[in-house]
Fold these 2 entries.
Entry 1:
Amino acid sequence: MFQDASQRDGQSRAIESCPLPRGVDLELLRRMLLTREIEARGVGPDRHPLPVVLRGRSEAGIVAAASALGPGDRLCASAAYAGAHLARALEPVRAPALPVVGDFLAKATGVALGTQLSRGTAVTLALIPAPQLAFERAAECLEVAVSRALPLVVLADEEGDEEGAVEAALPAAAGVGIEVEVLGGPEPETAYAACADAVAGARGGGPKLILMPAASVVEAGTGWGSAARPNDAVAAYARRLMEHGHPREQLRELRRQAESEARFG
Amino acid sequence: MTTRIRYSDAIVEALRMEMHRDPSIVLVGSDEQAEELASAFGGDRSVAVGRSDQGRIAVAAGAAASGLRVVVDAPLETLGPALIADLAAAVAAADEGRAPLIVRIPFGASSAGAPASRRALEGLLAIEGLAVVAPSTPADAKGLLASALHGAQPVCILEHESLGGHVGGVPEGGHQVAIGSARVTASGSRLTIISSGPASLLAEEMAAGRDGEVTVLDLRSLRPLDRDLILDCVRGTGKVLLVEQHDSPATGNEITALIVGEAFEYLDGPIRRLQLDPSDSGARDALEAACGELLSY
């Protein structure tokens, strides 16, 4: 299981404290499974990844975070965060057409600036790999966001091979003066709750940075409950749903739906 | 009424006038620029992102995508593939009815010939729907920027470093120059020189000493090209010299293809192309020699 929230320093929250409403919880799982199916189709028959690299190891938290946005809110993220785009109702067939390059924190800062200057109420969520926070331009964008109290939420996640990036980002974030929350891992319920809180806060004015470390061991796959993937966030989430009374067959049906929906091209 | 002002002041004048006219215009600039305009319009409409050229243009692209009309500056050599992709996305956003992005691009002696600059310019000229202009006079600098801020399409404005202090007459008040319109700066009957930026000023100066022999066409707009005026000039003189200074052959290739395709029968000699840095001491001589060679056909 993931590192418990209480084991980390700084602000955090316990999984048990934020159960999701019935219906929302199943929708989250459906989106995660759809992301997995898209990801599975991004891997060739010889198991070599195709050029579009999805950040598949944190998709449970990413899908949940993007699901916390309101209808008029904006998402700024590369194609690597396909799960977030799917959560925002992107048709699966359009996922490969998303841009894979670009500075999405800077773009999100601009979008939030535009919202503020046009007196809009939308909040912008930027999803970026945590190592990008080390760039000078990232610090400058966060400074602009703080100084202008922009309606911006930045979620920086960490893949397995980027371990330590979240810890490394903390001093820079403190230097900028942005409010920071560190999650225990890519666990969907805490990511959803943290993002929902941050969005509500940002709507009133003021950015927030959420740091989401990698889980210690995660393997991508389309199933759940397997002993070979004990730390798979999607599998763990599915197990919790079953513990909360959702029938196994209902969850299997969601998986079948996701497989069917992802068959494009 | 015109007043004589510097090229750089003409740009600031256009920005001031248009920002007064349209409250959706915002400047995302380097620190100095942002501070200067913040004093006139308040900090809201002038955002300083001075430490990173890449970050600045990405912030501007994001703001434009959310409906603002954004003016941003970025040196030519910093426009790498990711920023070119941002500009292409801005074109797509403008096609969907969102406000355009206007990118002021200083370039010149410090970046001339640099592979990064050449690639950047070729990348810009390859984006369908993106206008690229290169004003050579203060009046054109003011008029083209004003047109860009009135229009619905993303525009890149190439501002040669050597022109900043160039003084010329500028119409007072509102003044626009249509994007895609070239200008004949000298009229002659035997040869057409097609150029833009500082090279067109040099060509104009040289033509003045050749007593009605040379027509000089200042493109002003590298994309879209003023195809009709180019063809009219070529048909009138029969000989063509393309003077290029932008480190990219893309515009010259396009013009050559246009002339060969649409006015081949009017040509009395080969189309010559001359790479020229107008700041070189030998630039005038090189231009004279190329003209002399063509006129001898």
Entry 2:
Amino acid sequence: MSTRDQERVWTEWARAAHEATPPIDVARGRQRLLEVQRALAPRVRARARRRVWMAAAAFAALLAIVRLVWLRPITFECGGVRAEAGAWLATDGASELPLRFSEGTVVVLAAGSRGRVDELRARGARMVLERGTLQAHVTHRLRSDWRFVAGPFEVAVTGTSLEVGWDPVRERFSTAVTEGAVKVMGPSVGSEVTVRAGERCDVDVRTHAMQLTRSSPSLSPLLPPSPSPPPLEPVPPASAPPASHEVPPLPVKPGPLKHAHPRAPSVASSARWTRLEEQGRYDEALAAIEANGVDATIAAANDDELLRLSRLARAAGNVLLEQRALLACRARFPHTANAGIAAFELGRTAAPAAAARWFAVYLEERPDGPLAEQASGRLVEALELTGLHANAVAAAQRLLARFPNGPYASTARRVIGSPAK
Amino acid sequence: MDSSHHGRGAAAGPTRGGELRALPFEDDDAALVDGVRAGRVDALAALYDRHVDAIHGVVFRVLGPDRDHDDVVQDVFVRALESLPRLRDPSVLRSWLVGIAVMTIRIYLQRRRRQRWLRFLPSHELPEPAAPSDDAASDELKEVWSILAELPPDERIALVLCRVEGLALDAAAAACAMSVATLRRRLARGEAKFLARAARRPGLSRWLEGAR
């Protein structure tokens, strides 16, 4: 059949169909429709309300998911154990401490360094390096926000590998970047300076000298390496720890201070190293101590000099020497203000269990001392890190009673509010 | 077709305190749609009055005389009333209503075919459901509806929209919610089947002989 013939069939069909279409009862149909409209009206309103509520609920759920998943702060592990923000981290002169963050970043605290993860954020963290060196490989993500604070300097990172060093005694800052770029903010660098891959930035705060140089592909240690001391054993305080602070006994029974090579005190040599230290010639001061003999120097030093020696040792990353000086101060000058300070400093250098004991000692000896608030806060942190939650809660309650608005109040409230592990 | 004697432009329905009359909405479908969305009874009445003939025509020419014809037309307007808040462009109200009519007809035909299938009977052995009198229809038209009953719903609809209603391919495709290519294939299949069956129907010999 041709197209024309087919067209004729369609035309005939259309004409016949239109002619045969009967009229419709419009009035009846309209009436039925209006009845439907009346019946639908409440349902339509209810559906609109339901839609609004569902949209609001969906939006709230979305916000909750965003908060949970997107804005949730990252976490980190230290030695395979999940750690909390604010905890102090320290390494002895022989070992380093890797910190693994949940978004992939790895920070390694080098031997003889101290620092703390100050704040955990959704897209990064703020880490304070009190002294020593850290190496970081920051995982690059959209809007990563990593900050490393070293003394008066702050290094902003979005994704890179770098090393940061800070010597608080020499007041020297260094950072070297192997991947990406960082921004350094602080004194002597203008408003900020950008350090790119392969570059290294050294700042001497005292001389206000800043040097930006090309560094070797592999990072060299930014600060002088610390000596490797033998394993550190905590040493007991001069007086027994008070029961009132409910600090458990130390896991290791400490022994008395040992003098391996007792020598006669040399007043001249003592004067020499202290003079060098006063002049800021720390390397020479340490060399003088080594030359004179550590034991002899400790034996000849008074309580002030022992504290100065401990600070010098800390700056050099020599934890063993630092602890020996502090312990000597407590053993030889008990019941003095410096013995209390030595207890506090020993707490700062020790592992959590021993640290808790030392902070308790300080509080017992110097309940109204200038470091009482810090000791209270650190005692709470140390007890919580040790896993002694009930003791930590009790210490936190005491802290809040004395220092309800202090810098450790939030930590204390968090410990009180957290369940026992 | 003139249906004014059936109430065109008359009361939209009795209400408290008097009789509601549809206000003139001129030719602006957008104003009608706005009025219906605002819950105005007179706007819905005017919308129905303006478009019911076209929808009724499409339904009749696809289904033929059918006992459910009025319900299908009613169903088209109820679906339209429910879906009106989602109509983006009120100026295409007529083609939008035709699209709803096509969807409603398709659902109706598929449901009827399913009912037949469930009875394990071939469709051609069953007459169309008891229909209103088709005395007014010509013999040829009765044969046409008989052939249409044997076609799949999509081919039947495509055939009527393009060959009887005179819609262009793109307009018919839009009404059927399918691509032009798909509609063209279904139309071709529908035409071929229709003409083949028509050739075996003596009642259509006048159209076919005229064609020859």
